[in-house]
Amino acid sequence: MFxxxxxxxxxxxxxxxxxxxGSLLGDGWESSIWKDKTYRNQRVSSSDPTNGNDDFIKIxxxxxxxxxxxxxxxxxxxxxxxxASKDPMARKNAVIRMYWDNQTHPSVEVPLGEFFGQGWxxxxxxxxxxxxxxxxxxxxxxxxxxxxxxxxxxxEIENESDEDISNFYFYVDYEEWKEPLNSNLxxxxxxxxxxxxxxxxxxxxxxxxxxxxxxKTIFKKxxxxxxxxxxxxxxxxxxxxxxxxxxxxxxxxxxxLIFIDGNQTEANLKGTGTEDVFNTAWSxxxxxxxxxxxxxxxxxxxxxxxxxxxxxxWVESPIRxxxxxxxxxxxxxxxxxxxxxxxxxxxxxxxxxxxxxxxxKREFRLNKPEINFRHIHKWRDSFxxxxxxxxxxxxx
Length: 396
Fold this sequence. Notes:
Blueprint: H1 2-20, E1 40-45, E2 57-59, E3 63-70, E4 74-85, H2 90-93, E5 94-100, E6 108-111, H3 112-115, E7 126-127, E8 131-134, E9 140-143, E10 147-149, E11 153-159, E12 165-176, E13 185-195, E14 225-231, E15 234-245, E16 256-260, E17 269-270, H4 274-277, E18 288-289, E19 293-297, E20 306-313, E21 319-321, E22 324-329, E23 340-350, H5 373-386
Parallel strand pairs: 6-13
Antiparallel strand pairs: 1-12, 2-12, 3-11, 4-9, 4-10, 4-12, 5-6, 5-11, 7-8, 8-9, 13-23, 14-22, 15-20, 15-21, 15-23, 16-17, 16-22, 18-19, 19-20
């Protein structure tokens, strides 16, 4: 109970900090909120058109529904969504797509829950500046990313589930502008996944020198997990990383490497470990949420076995690029670990005539099976069998 209260107090403190320091995505509301505005507030929502109380839409199984189509100039400032479905994995089996300025291919194509900061089809609280999963128990999904458009915007939800989304509620709040945006940068988000393999010479999953001397990292682009690779001018602003680890050993010795504008031999920005990318330290395993970074979901098993969600938003200083951008992440030191890594990258850039990488279909996005104490006990039995079922404690 004491631990729960401490976590609750921490979240409330961070929330209060965010409130009293103003908007962390801009110059601060206190310096601009009282100034004259020229935009017109608009909203598209699931409000019942008959003025009844059925303020939702239905999204049938295997169907795609356009929830908003705006034919003007403006900036989406807030999106709120919640849903009900018999499918417990509805948030993973539904996909959100966004199109800007009449482009035929999407600039955003991400499973719904993972876009809003909830991995593996789960529901849990997330409290960051641009994304919030709010009570009841994370069922309310919110985005505060500004999403500009010059000649139109469209948002679709595809339900890849075998069950209907019986109740889908939403707001899309936007500012309608008369004046030009004076920027061609548009909001983008992309999903990526890799079940990695050890890329060390020994092929061992060696961390913390538990299996012998630790090997040196050998740089090969294909050995790393790719968070984002894109061409054009823009600025990278955020990352949700969902880690499912089949080992109880620490998953986060891997460094981040960020290459900017053509340089893919020496990283412009080089990190020192996964927890350091996400502004924490010393292999943490505790829930913590700050407006810019945090761990909203951590492993509940032995060590770091299982699922951990990390986020980092560079809204205080977006990472700029003029020609191209590449963000790589090691999976364990020297790329030594098997991990199921899912990332959602968020960035702004000009619209590209070439479509982004196509999101894999539902059957290729399924969660890995859980590894638990039963499997650990079977591993122990295999070890005992190799030793002739003699006296075995387990640390031999």
